[in-house]
Amino acid sequence: MSASLSQHEALVYVMVMMSAVDRSMSDDEFARIGGLVRFLPAFDGFDEDRLIHIGRECAAQLAAPEGLDVTLEMVRESLPQRHYETAYALAVEIAAADQRIRTEEIRLLQLLRDRLGLDKLTCAAIERGALARFRR
């Protein structure tokens, strides 16, 4: 397994994984990642200039053999449990940013939920909140 990630890096990895899962990173998704990094308290002290570098590292990790499984495990090991729900919420935000949830995104959300041991009711509440925020 590769070197561990910082808490900030792990959260960025989650967003990049979600953005990349459909093999394209939309402008809406990229803008959303930047906005979340600037706005959320979970990213206090994070050097925003590292965002692109971390995104590239994540993409390289995902391209490696068993990349998704290894990356999910790196995220789980790097985050304190109190940020598991935060990671899931960030993944949902990125999935909802372009107002289309694809099959691949749903599957990644399931994998993330299972890897982090989150209960389905909590995840449903997070998902419902995102739907309400992005509704036109």
Note down, in words, how this protein is organized.
This protein has 136 residues and is mostly helical. The protein has one domain: TerB-like (Orthogonal Bundle). 69% of the residues lie in helices and 0% in strands. It has 7 helices and no strands. Helix 1 runs antiparallel to helix 4, helix 2 runs antiparallel to helix 5 and helix 5 packs parallel to helix 7. The chain is globular and about 40 Å long. The mean pLDDT is 90.
Overview in brief:
With 136 residues, the chain is mainly α.
Q: Which structural traits does this protein have?
A:
single chain; 136 residues; mainly alpha; TerB-like; 0% strand; globular; DjlA_N
Judging by the overall fold, what is the CATH architecture?
Orthogonal Bundle
Name the structural class: mainly alpha
- What's the tally of helices? 7
Helix and strand element order: HHHHHHH
Radius of gyration: 14 Å
Low-confidence stretches: none
Organism: Sinorhizobium fredii (strain USDA 257)
Protein name: Co-chaperone DjlA N-terminal domain-containing protein
Pfam families: TerB
Domain Co-chaperone DjlA N-terminal: 8-125
